[in-house]
Amino acid sequence: METKKKKSLASRIPARVWLLISFAVAMGVWYLLSIIPQTSRGFPNVVVTIEGLITMIQRGAFWQDLSSSLISVFGGYALGFVIALPVAILMAWYLPVRNILNPWIQFIRNIPPLAYVPLIVIVSGVGRRPQIIVITIACFLTMCVTIYQGVVNVDETLIKAARVLGAKDRDIFVRVIAPATLPFILTAVRLGASVALTTLIAAESTGAEAGLGMRIRALASLYESAPMLAYVIVIGIIGITLDNIIKLLERKLTGWQEKREI
Amino acid sequence: MAGEARDLKLKIDNVRKVFHTRSGEMVALNGVSLDIYENEFICVVGPSGCGKSTLLNIIAGLTDATSGAVYCNGKAVTGTGTDRGVVFQQYALFPWLTVKKNVMFALEMKGIKGKQAQELAMQYLAKVDLEKFADHYPKELSGGMKQRVAIARAYAADPEVLLMDEPFGALDAQTRTQLQSELLETWERDRKTCFFITHDVDEAIILSQRVVIMSARPGRIKDIIDIDIPYPRTQETKMTPRFLELKNRIWSQVYQEYLEVRK
Fold first, then answer.
1. Which of A22, A248, B160, B227 is 20 to 30 Å apart from A1, CA to CA?
2. pTM of the full structure
């Protein structure tokens, strides 16, 4: 009985409150890191970190960095999606396309983007272009695999059911395959967003003039840990915000699903 | 059946189906011939692997026969057609559409659109007692309700022949008998030609006018037994001596086949 009561107490706390508790604990850990001598150099406390961010804003660097990074992220991300969608469908439908492309994708997917960035810079020069190319490649690889899985896994019985009801190929594509694949497309969109951000640092190592990743590297050489930490947190905030927006979209569009993916 | 002039609805003519598998050729069906008449209710029983689902898929036009042919109204079947409707064991409802829109899908494929489709869909849902669930998604329904929606959808397409592939196989015993009774009532009313696959001998006898017993490997027709129990039939019919007699006769033949398959 005792344990049961304890359990129900923990489960009675609403999710929002848990989130607050989690946040409070994180702040506590951060504070500890800022006072322990071994870690304090890398983790200045909240006030110092915010001051670091304000300094960056005053220097005029922050907004420039943020907008530059967002342009690269969204550019590469959108381009990656636009390429991934048709390629995934072609892979699912045509055996030769699948058998030739799939090994490439699996091969490249396991190479850290940072490794091939210099090659791309040699080909496309420095600036915005290599950044977008790197993010496009990374997003394409992840999204293509996920969407492909979705198209391949469309329940055969649903296609049969549509066919016996008189559906033509076009009806089957628009009214069965497209909606059946939508959950996978949205999962791809979510995974792609996360990949775009994680690739950002690699992308901005290409001699970018501004950008969150580029600035972190520049600040690192000056040992300015306060603004660095602030930038790292900003990247995290962008990531979690995107993730939640897409999750909201998923709930709206694919609430009909029996099982929901995490 | 003798002496009655009846319209031949489906003619299954010497159908053979061979699957090519990694371990070689597998003859799923061999020399299967069967005439099915208009307004007839036929059940096919047999052990799993006897090719009864393959036969249904060939009739539906979802699979090609290796040789032989199926004729519907005298015309050779070359693909799916709205003259033949199918109810699947796994319901096959579109999970992203509401119950009503699932039924409307069938109507829209026939060119019936908009308000007319909505009203008709509600009528078909009323027949299976599910008007109240029109705006629910399939995930919110029980198995029995899902299958009722699938049946309503199949009826909405208004096929001439209804092909049912173990439609109640995934349901619990109680729901199954309930759906059997509902199907019986519907059939007694409109007498739509029905080709019904099951592995449940009781179900086959209670529903059909003829039970086709299939043997396995290769699948072929072993025997056809007339069920001379008059309609209307109810669940009580299952207690009558004639029913039990037929059940014994069919069951012993099916059981032999199960033993064959086990070997």
1. A22
2. 0.80
